[in-house]
Amino acid sequence: MADSGSAGGGVDARDIKANPTANANATPPRRRERAKRRDLRCPVHADTSMVGTGRKYFLHLLTTEELKQRGLSHKRAQLVIQAYPVLVLSNEWLEQLWCPECGQSHWCHITRHERHEHTVRWASRELWQQVAHVDPMVANPSVSEFSRRVAGRADGNRRYWDN
User: Fewer CB near the last or first residue (10 Å), C or N of the chain?
Assistant: First the structure.
């Protein structure tokens, strides 16, 4: 026996008898919005969005001077360093970004202000000293000399800090 009311996705007469207020109080399903993507702009080309191509390298602070550069008072910076010998910043990191206007990847220092507001600057050599387990001056011992030479030729002998 075919029920003509339920075939089109409508309300069945049996549902109304069982719960007469079901149809009156029904709200339409809410449309879910997609999460906003972070909008990273090239420091040279302000109207061009950059795309992340690698993992994030979060900055680690070890001294009170590094904390004072980020706006903390001397006394508060000393307290933080005493409490946390290594402070990992969750709102600052280094990441390799691709700029379609420049046509190449750059290592950038990214600072997050709000959930979707970021400041992008070219990463300096000194910032790599604040990243744990990464030393761009020392070659990776697991890579052979041949591979290192070939990669240097293909990459144009660029390093992390070159722009």
Answer: N
